[in-house]
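Sequence in, structure out.
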Amino acid sequence: MSSSARLFQCLGCQRQVIICRQCDRGQSYCAQGCAQQARRASLRQAGRRYQQSFQGRLNHALRQRRYRQKQNQAKEIVTHHTSKQPQVISCYSPGQNSSEKAVTATVKHCHFCGEVVSGWLRLDFLQGTPVRNLHH
């Protein structure tokens, strides 16, 4: 028995994403890293706002002062750095023929847990389910 699922468009990469009822927590981003990128951007913005505040400027100046003192205590002159060899990652996955691709294209899976879901997809959240307020 396949479970109910929701279809939404990721706010980061604009891909269509299917999420099963068990994984659905109101996500707006796909499982491919868009949520982490949005979180990093949000933290950078918060850091910029903090740096513009009076307390943020004082703390930054103190941190820089400690850093410069630490650098003066342990001076090590390095003239050459070794370069690392670039790592090559292959995206080719052999072993999947065209008939396997045709079969998997008709079956829908949750992009988060991989569970097979119903062919009928919701475009909105389930009605009547309580939304947790995380700002307590």
